[in-house]
Amino acid sequence: MLLAVDVGNTQTVFGLFDGAELTEHWRIATERHRSGDELGAQYKGFLDLGRVDGISLASTVPQLSRSYQEFAARYTDAELLELGPGVKTGIVVRYDDPREIGPDRVANAVAAADRYGPPCIVVDFGTSTNFDVVSADGSTSAACSRRGSRSRWTPSSNEPRACARSTSSSRRA
Predict the structure, then answer these.
(1) The one catalytic residue among 48, 96, 104, 124
(2) Domains of the chain as residue ranges with CATH
(3) What is the 3-state secondary structure (H, E, C) of the chain?
(4) pTM of the entire predicted model
(5) Catalytic (active site) residue 104
Protein backbone atom coordinates (compact mmCIF):
# COMPACT_ATOMS: atom_id res chain seq x y z
CA MET A 1 0.00 0.00 0.00
CA LEU A 2 1.14 3.53 -0.74
CA LEU A 3 0.73 6.14 1.98
CA ALA A 4 0.28 9.50 0.25
CA VAL A 5 0.76 12.52 2.52
CA ASP A 6 0.00 16.16 1.64
CA VAL A 7 1.31 18.40 4.42
CA GLY A 8 -0.26 21.84 4.05
CA ASN A 9 0.20 24.91 6.18
CA THR A 10 -3.10 24.33 8.00
CA GLN A 11 -4.06 20.70 7.44
CA THR A 12 -2.40 17.43 6.53
CA VAL A 13 -4.36 15.10 4.28
CA PHE A 14 -3.23 11.51 3.89
CA GLY A 15 -4.57 8.34 2.38
CA LEU A 16 -3.80 4.77 1.47
CA PHE A 17 -3.67 3.64 -2.14
CA ASP A 18 -3.97 0.04 -3.26
CA GLY A 19 -2.63 0.40 -6.79
CA ALA A 20 -4.53 3.31 -8.31
CA GLU A 21 -7.45 3.04 -5.86
CA LEU A 22 -7.69 5.32 -2.83
CA THR A 23 -8.97 2.97 -0.12
CA GLU A 24 -8.92 5.26 2.95
CA HIS A 25 -8.20 8.91 3.69
CA TRP A 26 -7.97 11.28 6.64
CA ARG A 27 -7.51 14.99 7.43
CA ILE A 28 -5.70 16.28 10.54
CA ALA A 29 -4.27 19.60 11.73
CA THR A 30 -0.69 20.30 10.69
CA GLU A 31 1.56 20.83 13.67
CA ARG A 32 5.00 22.10 12.64
CA HIS A 33 6.77 20.92 15.78
CA ARG A 34 5.95 17.19 15.44
CA SER A 35 8.88 14.79 15.78
CA GLY A 36 9.25 11.53 13.86
CA ASP A 37 8.17 9.63 16.97
CA GLU A 38 5.07 11.78 17.37
CA LEU A 39 4.19 11.21 13.72
CA GLY A 40 4.67 7.47 14.22
CA ALA A 41 2.32 7.43 17.21
CA GLN A 42 -0.21 9.55 15.36
CA TYR A 43 -0.23 7.51 12.15
CA LYS A 44 -0.43 4.22 14.10
CA GLY A 45 -3.78 5.46 15.39
CA PHE A 46 -5.14 5.64 11.84
CA LEU A 47 -3.62 2.73 9.95
CA ASP A 48 -1.55 -0.45 10.09
CA LEU A 49 1.93 0.82 9.24
CA GLY A 50 3.03 -2.74 8.47
CA ARG A 51 0.87 -2.61 5.31
CA VAL A 52 2.70 0.47 4.00
CA ASP A 53 5.36 -0.33 1.39
CA GLY A 54 5.82 3.19 0.02
CA ILE A 55 5.34 6.76 1.23
CA SER A 56 4.84 9.76 -1.03
CA LEU A 57 5.22 13.13 0.69
CA ALA A 58 4.33 16.60 -0.60
CA SER A 59 5.03 19.11 2.15
CA THR A 60 4.78 22.87 2.13
CA VAL A 61 6.15 22.85 5.69
CA PRO A 62 9.94 22.40 5.45
CA GLN A 63 10.29 21.95 9.23
CA LEU A 64 8.48 18.60 8.95
CA SER A 65 10.61 17.03 6.21
CA ARG A 66 13.18 15.61 8.62
CA SER A 67 10.42 14.39 10.96
CA TYR A 68 8.80 12.46 8.09
CA GLN A 69 12.18 10.96 7.16
CA GLU A 70 12.61 9.81 10.77
CA PHE A 71 9.02 8.50 10.86
CA ALA A 72 9.48 6.48 7.66
CA ALA A 73 12.81 5.01 8.79
CA ARG A 74 11.73 4.10 12.30
CA TYR A 75 8.07 3.08 11.93
CA THR A 76 7.85 1.55 8.45
CA ASP A 77 9.84 -0.58 6.04
CA ALA A 78 8.72 1.80 3.29
CA GLU A 79 10.78 4.00 1.04
CA LEU A 80 9.94 7.70 1.34
CA LEU A 81 9.71 9.79 -1.82
CA GLU A 82 9.51 13.49 -1.05
CA LEU A 83 8.26 15.60 -3.93
CA GLY A 84 10.47 18.63 -4.43
CA PRO A 85 12.96 20.31 -6.77
CA GLY A 86 14.81 17.74 -8.86
CA VAL A 87 12.19 14.98 -8.63
CA LYS A 88 11.18 13.91 -12.14
CA THR A 89 7.37 14.05 -12.45
CA GLY A 90 6.84 14.33 -16.19
CA ILE A 91 5.52 17.88 -15.73
CA VAL A 92 7.71 20.80 -16.75
CA VAL A 93 7.13 23.75 -14.41
CA ARG A 94 7.09 26.99 -16.40
CA TYR A 95 7.44 29.59 -13.75
CA ASP A 96 10.03 32.32 -13.22
CA ASP A 97 11.40 30.49 -10.14
CA PRO A 98 10.07 26.89 -10.09
CA ARG A 99 11.24 26.47 -6.47
CA GLU A 100 8.48 28.89 -5.45
CA ILE A 101 5.79 26.43 -6.58
CA GLY A 102 4.84 24.16 -3.69
CA PRO A 103 5.09 20.40 -4.12
CA ASP A 104 1.35 20.13 -3.50
CA ARG A 105 0.69 22.15 -6.64
CA VAL A 106 3.07 20.00 -8.70
CA ALA A 107 1.35 16.86 -7.37
CA ASN A 108 -2.04 18.33 -8.31
CA ALA A 109 -0.84 19.04 -11.85
CA VAL A 110 0.61 15.53 -12.24
CA ALA A 111 -2.63 13.96 -10.97
CA ALA A 112 -4.88 16.10 -13.17
CA ALA A 113 -2.78 15.43 -16.28
CA ASP A 114 -2.81 11.70 -15.53
CA ARG A 115 -6.52 11.50 -14.76
CA TYR A 116 -7.98 13.91 -17.31
CA GLY A 117 -5.15 14.49 -19.78
CA PRO A 118 -3.77 17.85 -20.77
CA PRO A 119 -4.78 20.57 -21.26
CA CYS A 120 -6.56 21.12 -17.97
CA ILE A 121 -6.95 23.61 -15.14
CA VAL A 122 -6.44 22.59 -11.53
CA VAL A 123 -8.29 24.43 -8.75
CA ASP A 124 -7.17 23.67 -5.18
CA PHE A 125 -9.36 25.02 -2.37
CA GLY A 126 -6.82 24.89 0.46
CA THR A 127 -5.70 27.62 2.86
CA SER A 128 -5.48 29.70 -0.30
CA THR A 129 -7.30 28.92 -3.52
CA ASN A 130 -4.79 28.07 -6.24
CA PHE A 131 -5.38 27.83 -9.97
CA ASP A 132 -2.79 26.02 -12.09
CA VAL A 133 -2.80 25.42 -15.82
CA VAL A 134 -1.49 22.25 -17.46
CA SER A 135 -0.94 23.08 -21.11
CA ALA A 136 -1.47 20.75 -24.05
CA ASP A 137 2.26 19.90 -24.07
CA GLY A 138 2.04 18.75 -20.42
CA SER A 139 3.80 21.73 -18.87
CA THR A 140 2.32 23.71 -16.02
CA SER A 141 2.41 27.25 -14.78
CA ALA A 142 0.96 28.83 -11.69
CA ALA A 143 -1.94 30.92 -12.79
CA CYS A 144 -3.24 32.57 -9.65
CA SER A 145 -3.39 32.27 -5.89
CA ARG A 146 -6.22 33.77 -3.84
CA ARG A 147 -6.34 34.38 -0.10
CA GLY A 148 -9.56 35.88 1.13
CA SER A 149 -10.64 38.75 -1.11
CA ARG A 150 -7.22 39.49 -2.66
CA SER A 151 -5.62 37.77 -5.61
CA ARG A 152 -2.02 37.54 -6.71
CA TRP A 153 -1.07 37.03 -10.32
CA THR A 154 2.04 34.92 -10.79
CA PRO A 155 2.57 34.52 -14.53
CA SER A 156 5.28 32.85 -16.53
CA SER A 157 6.51 34.98 -19.41
CA ASN A 158 4.22 33.37 -22.01
CA GLU A 159 0.94 32.92 -20.13
CA PRO A 160 -2.17 35.11 -20.49
CA ARG A 161 -3.44 36.93 -17.46
CA ALA A 162 -5.71 34.55 -15.56
CA CYS A 163 -6.79 36.52 -12.49
CA ALA A 164 -7.48 40.13 -11.68
CA ARG A 165 -7.16 42.01 -8.41
CA SER A 166 -10.44 42.45 -6.68
CA THR A 167 -11.25 43.80 -3.24
CA SER A 168 -14.84 42.66 -3.07
CA SER A 169 -15.34 39.60 -5.23
CA SER A 170 -13.47 37.43 -7.69
CA ARG A 171 -13.91 38.10 -11.38
CA ARG A 172 -12.35 36.99 -14.64
CA ALA A 173 -9.99 39.33 -16.42
Answers:
(1) 104
(2) 2-82 (3.30.420.40), 92-153 (3.30.420.40)
(3) CEEEEEECCCEEEEEEEECCEEEEEEEEECCCCCCHHHHHHHHHCCCCHHHCCEEEEEECCHHHHHHHHHHHHHHCCCEEEECCCCCCCCCEECCCCHHHCCHHHHHHHHHHHHHHCCCEEEEEECCCEEEEEECCCCEEEEEEEEECCEEEECCCCCCCCCCCCCCCCCCCC
(4) 0.76
(5) yes
